[in-house]
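Milestone 3.1: sequence recovery, worked example.
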């Protein structure tokens, strides 16, 4: 059985970090005889420059056929003035919605070697292992109507719509309860049910699902408190489930607990477990082209791909072990650099992971 992985490097540091993850995946493919074949395609600003579209049809059609996708990042100042529908980010959002990748898993795990790279005290973050389950194809990101309209008198008004249907809430809820069941059995649903009706319904559906998962302990938290608790006492969380926008924000916050956003991988899955894998960070225009970006989030996203879409748990573990070994060796990209460690470039970090495999 031949399985295909589509690589979409995108923009900014995207091509730099994907190149390192690609080397690692090629090596794993050979050593574990996985029989994977690799293709690459255009998305985001890179696609706009070539074809005029952030998500060319060819990319979308290929994305539909492959078993998994590894994406770098999209966006950058070059395309920031384009109208919303033509921006690089639409390429990413279009892949998510067309492939119905509604379940976004963002694991924030602190590698013990990086305890001093976190901006929080080591005792607050040591042993940290949180799974954020973010709804990815609904909520305010996709709700209609949306736009900028002119009011009487000529003033303009921007508007978006925050909507979730019961079935959308139920399917992401199930993913989160299942995840909690496989972990420590605690699920915290994050909402704004004191203000927003859409999240009153969210809370109701989560409570209803809890009846099906008596082994999981469900709690609820308002998003403002959750943001505070994440930096006060992050280890109280096991699995967090939340909507699209709150999940976007809380996962960047959680990333910092692990030392750097350059360490946080992600999986975006549909109900067939087809998946797109990407680091949680963006195209980092401020450091693009300098060869200093941290490729580990992308390499670890490759491990998630092996685990969730390709069913290759051993190969996934091998990559994670190699990353840990490289950190043991004291190698650090600039974003996770600390005293006594050796600073390495993007490529050197990728090579070190290869050597550790
Ligand atoms: P960003 O995540 O690109 O960068 C935020 C900060 O983190 C920057 O200082 C950057 O240098 C640093 N950083 C990010 N990744 C890093 C890495 N691997 N190693 C070391 N440092 C890293 O967020 P931003 O600056 O808000 O956005 C830049 C562009 O990326 C925007 O166009 C945005 O829309 C886009 N974006 C894309 C994605 C994606 O493709 N999934 C995600 C977030 C943002
Ligand atoms: C992310 C990014 C995207 C999001 C943007 C680039 C559309 O921030 O993957 O976290 O908001 O989902
Ligand atoms: Mn984000």
């Amino acid at each position: 059985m031949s399985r295909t992985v589509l690589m979409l490097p995108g923009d900014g540091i995207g091509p730099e970090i994907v190149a390192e993850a690609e080397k690692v995946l090629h090596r794993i493919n050979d050593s574990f005889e996985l029989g994977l074949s690799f293709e690459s395609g255009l998305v985001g600003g890179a696609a706009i420059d070539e074809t005029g579209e952030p998500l060319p049809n060819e990319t979308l059609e290929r994305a539909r056929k492959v078993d998994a996708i590894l994406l770098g990042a999209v966006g950058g100042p070059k395309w920031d003035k384009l109208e919303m529908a033509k921006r690089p980010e639409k390429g990413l959002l279009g892949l998510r919605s067309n492939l119905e990748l509604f379940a976004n898993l963002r694991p924030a795990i602190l590698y013990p070697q990086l305890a001093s790279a976190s901006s929080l005290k080591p005792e607050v973050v040591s042993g940290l292992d949180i799974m954020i389950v973010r709804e990815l194809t609904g909520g305010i990101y996709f709700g209609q109507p949306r736009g900028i309209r002119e009011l009487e008198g000529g003033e303009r008004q921007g508007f978006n719509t925050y909507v979730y249907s019961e079935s959308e809430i139920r399917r992401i809820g199930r993913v989160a309860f299942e995840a909690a069941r496989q972990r420590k059995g605690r699920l915290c649903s994050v909402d704004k049910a004191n203000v927003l009706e859409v999240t009153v319904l969210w809370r109701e559906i989560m409570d209803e699902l809890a009846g099906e998962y008596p082994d999981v302990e469900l709690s609820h938290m308002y998003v403002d408190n959750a943001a505070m608790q994440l930096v006060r006492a992050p280890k109280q969380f096991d699995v967090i489930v939340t909507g699209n926008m709150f999940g976007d924000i809380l996962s960047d916050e959680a990333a910092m607990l692990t030392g750097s956003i350059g360490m946080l991988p992600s999986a975006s899955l549909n109900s067939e477990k087809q998946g797109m894998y990407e680091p949680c960070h963006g195209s980092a225009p401020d450091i693009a082209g300098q060869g200093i970006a941290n490729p580990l989030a992308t390499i670890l996203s490759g491990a998630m791909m092996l685990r969730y879409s390709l069913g290759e748990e051993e190969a996934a573990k091998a990559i994670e072990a190699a990353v840990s070994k490289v950190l043991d060796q004291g190698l650090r990209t600039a974003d996770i650099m600390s005293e006594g460690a050796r600073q390495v470039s993007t490529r050197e970090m990728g090579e070190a992971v290869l050597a550790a495999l």
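The chain has a mean pLDDT of 97. The CA atoms of residues 18 and 264 lie 14 Å apart.
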